[in-house]
Design goal:
376 residues; elongated; MetI-like fold; four-stranded antiparallel sheet; alpha+beta; 15 helices
C-alpha cells in the first residue's frame, strides 16, 4: 500500500474544493438571481436615480419651484455650447411673440458655473445651503427642458414635482399594507365572526368603483384647501381603496400558514396571539408582500397624476408631475411645445421601472429559484 505524496494530496484537495463549497445563504441566492435579470437591475437603478433626484432637488435644480420669468414663456430647451473656456449659453430675445419663439443673441455669452451660488434652501430639510449643481452666470438663463407658460423652468419643476409624485406611492403603499396585513392577518388567524365581518367589509370596498370614488371625494374638497391638505387627502383616498384586495390575499395565506407545525408549537409553548401572528406567520409572507408592494406603487403614482391632471390634486405653486401635465391638454400646445410632455415621460418610465423591478423580485424570491441557487 503506497502513501499519498504531498503533491497528490494537494491535487486531491484542489479537486474536492468545488464539491466542498458551502451552500449559499438565502440573501446570496436572492442577489444572484436578481442580478441575472437585466430589466430588474435597470428598473432598480432608474428608481434610485429618480428618488435621489427628488431628495436632492434643491441642489440639482438651478431655480426655485415657483420662480417665474414671464418674458420667457414657452421658451425652448436651452442649447449648451462648448469652447476652450468650457460650457456656455447665449442670451435670448423674443423673435415671434405670437408663437413664443426666441432667438439666440450670439453677441452675449454666459458661462455655466458648477456648484454656483443661488437661492437659499435647506438640504434634506436641515442643512442651510445656497450652492447648486450648475447655473448660468447672471443675467444668463439656462433651461435644459424649456419653460412653461409662466416662464417656470421645467427641469426644476420636474425635480420638485418628483417629491410629490414619488412620495405618494411610498406613503400610500405603507398605509395600505399596514391596514391590509393587520385586517387580513387577524381575519385569517381567528376566523369565525371576525373573518366574516372583515371579508364582507372588504368586499363592500372592492365593489365601489375606484375612479368614481376618487373623483367624488376630491370634488368635495373646499377650494381654499392648500396643497398640503390636498396631498394628504389623495394619500388617504388611494390607501382606502387599495387595502381591501391585499387583506383578502393576506387572509388566504394566513389560513394556510396557521396550520403549520411551527405555529402549533409556538402556541403550545404559550406564545400570545400577537407574537404568533407577527413573529411566525406574517414574516413567512414577506416575499409576497415585497413583490406586491413593488407592483402596487405605480397605481398610487398614476392616481395622483390623474387627480392633479384633472385639477383635483395639488395646485400651483406646488408642482407635481400630474399638475404639470395640465398644460399638455391642448393639442396646439403639445405640438408647438413638446417639452411640456416631459412629466408624462417620467411617469411612464417610473411605472415601467417599478414593474420591471417587481418582476425581477418575483423571480428572485421564488422558492424554486432559491433551491436551485443553493445547489449551485
Amino acid at each position: 500500500m503506497t502513501r499519498p505524496t504531498p503533491a497528490s494530496a494537494a491535487a486531491g484537495q484542489g479537486s474536492a474544493s468545488p464539491a466542498a463549497r458551502p451552500p449559499r445563504s438565502p440573501r446570496q441566492v436572492f442577489w444572484r438571481a436578481l442580478r441575472r435579470s437585466p430589466t430588474a437591475v435597470a428598473g432598480g437603478v432608474l428608481l434610485a436615480v429618480l428618488y435621489a433626484g427628488a431628495l436632492f432637488a434643491d441642489f440639482l435644480a438651478p431655480y426655485p419651484m415657483d420662480r417665474q420669468k414671464r418674458d420667457l414663456g414657452y421658451a425652448a430647451p436651452t442649447r449648451v455650447r462648448w469652447d476652450a473656456g468650457g460650457p456656455y449659453v447665449h442670451g435670448l430675445r423674443l423673435a415671434d411673440p405670437v408663437r413664443s419663439l426666441y432667438a439666440e443673441e450670439r453677441a452675449t455669452r454666459h458661462p455655466l458655473r458648477w456648484f454656483a451660488p443661488g437661492h437659499r434652501y435647506r438640504l434634506l430639510g436641515v442643512i442651510p445651503a445656497e450652492r447648486h449643481l450648475f447655473a448660468a452666470a447672471a443675467p444668463g438663463e439656462i433651461h435644459l427642458l424649456g419653460t412653461d407658460d409662466l416662464g417656470r423652468d421645467v427641469y426644476s419643476q420636474l425635480l420638485y414635482g418628483a417629491r410629490i409624485s414619488l412620495s405618494v406611492g411610498l406613503i400610500g403603499i405603507t398605509i395600505t399594507f399596514v391596514f391590509g396585513i393587520c385586517i387580513g392577518g387577524i381575519s385569517g388567524y381567528f376566523g369565525g365572526l371576525v373573518d366574516e365581518f372583515a371579508m364582507r367589509f372588504s368586499e363592500l370596498v372592492l365593489s365601489i368603483p375606484s375612479l368614481y370614488l376618487i373623483v367624488a371625494l376630491a370634488a368635495v374638497v373646499p377650494p381654499q384647501w392648500g396643497s398640503d391638505r390636498r396631498y394628504l387627502l389623495i394619500v388617504l383616498i388611494l390607501s382606502f381603496i387599495g387595502w381591501a384586495s391585499l387583506a383578502r390575499v393576506m387572509r388566504g395565506m394566513v389560513l394556510a400558514i396557521r396550520e403549520n407545525e411551527y405555529v402549533t408549537a409556538a402556541r403550545a409553548l404559550g406564545a400570545g396571539t400577537a407574537r404568533v401572528l407577527f413573529r411566525h406567520i406574517v414574516p413567512n409572507t414577506l416575499s409576497f408582500l415585497i413583490v406586491a408592494a413593488t407592483i402596487s406603487v405605480p397605481s398610487y403614482i398614476l392616481g395622483e397624476a390623474y387627480l392633479s391632471f384633472l385639477g383635483m390634486g395639488v395646485h400651483s405653486p406646488v408642482a407635481s408631475w400630474g399638475s404639470m401635465l395640465q398644460q399638455a391638454q391642448k393639442v396646439s400646445v403639445l405640438t408647438a411645445y413638446p417639452w411640456t410632455l416631459a412629466p408624462g415621460a417620467l411617469i411612464f418610465l417610473t411605472v415601467m421601472a417599478f414593474n420591471f423591478l417587481g418582476d425581477g423580485l418575483a423571480d428572485a424570491l421564488d422558492p424554486r429559484v432559491a433551491r436551485a441557487g443553493r445547489s449551485l
